[in-house]
Amino acid sequence: MSVAADPDEKFAHYAHPERLVSTAWLAENLDTDSLVVVESDEDVLLYDTGHIPGAVKVDWHTDLNDEVTRDYVDGAAFARLMSAKGITRDSTVVIYGDKSNWWASYALWVFTLFGHEDVRLLDGGRDKWLAEGRPTTTDVPATQNVEYPVVERNDAPIRAYMSDVLDHLGKPLIDVRSADEYTGVRTHMPAYPEEGALRGGHIPSAASVPWARAAAEDGTFRSRAELDAIYRDEVGLKDDDDVVAYCRIGERSSHTWFVLFYLLGFSKVRNYDGSWTEWGNAVRVPIVKGEERGEVPTS
Amino acid sequence: MTAPLPAKLDEIVEDFQALDEPDRLQLLLEFSQGLPALPAHLLEHPELLEQVVECQTPLFLKVEIDESPERIVHLYFSAPPEAPTTRGFAGVLHEGLDGLPSAEILAVPDDVPDRLGLTRAITPLRMRGMTAMLGRIKRTVRAGQPA
Question: pLDDT tens digit string along B84-103?
């Protein structure tokens, strides 16, 4: 870690306190040389309306997704992106965004696929920074291309493909979508019909824990005790569990992945980014409708 | 051969086409900032606005058709400042279509959003929000036509 962690009392209770920074900490550290602040939003223009001074923009869709194949960019493209944003392999990267850090979590997860070591989230994201009346600017920082090595993506530890999920059935699965998507009443989120699926429901045995339960009203993460009460006491996750989280395209489940992996310290947590837009459109995969988790098929 | 557009909308499409990609995004941002606020009669009666659920961010729309022989159409949009892309799409449609006769609006080709040259920068997924808005406007105008 090239920049000292935020010693915030709340973070100290998490398994990896160094993965979060507070708005106050960021305000004090904005001028630190080895720190790069990245904004990552759902809305591609939001950064341009005003952002944290010095922050660069990374768009989840145009920067992190491959343009042709449904996959993430490769090592060479990621290196070009990092270089253009002024990020070196040693940089401390703090990511923040809209919607309680949905897309910021997603970006952090993609950075992690490439093994970027020191990448953190701003607790509370864009909304909290603005709500506190902290400074913003429309000036885009003039970044100089820096050296970033071409590192091949290492998907296996934190990313699950559909075939992995089929093999995983019987072990803990967390469905982070809304209740209506889980039961199959809806095949998409209320305001996102273009990301629909042909079938509604959930993957057999998946527990329903909508992602937003991990976020407080101000968009910050809930405390360690509150998160333990949800994921350990209520869902029954145990320390050495092998867990897969999914949603619709993998962005809301990145938020839950962050919670399980970094805040609660589960050692094996994977995000199934194919999620419901793959599973709900796939031929002959098992689906359960309704509120019950359902049984894992035996054959 | 593409169908002709109403003059103002055609001008907007040409403005977008004349720019390179980053500047097209800036122009869309200007449209989002230029989207007029709701008039008093709608501010006081938000229930008159209809939500376009096809958009990722809540967008509210009101289509008013006057009693003149040409049945002039007035468009009112409302979207939050934290949704600049949605506001930008609304701004383009407002400037390009507001005040036109019903017949001209119904003749606008459904693929106009694709002609702004934003699809690569914005992604096809996001462009569908604008296509949905145009579709909603045309459906409402069509429904308001005398039988």
Answer: 999 999 999 999 999 999 99
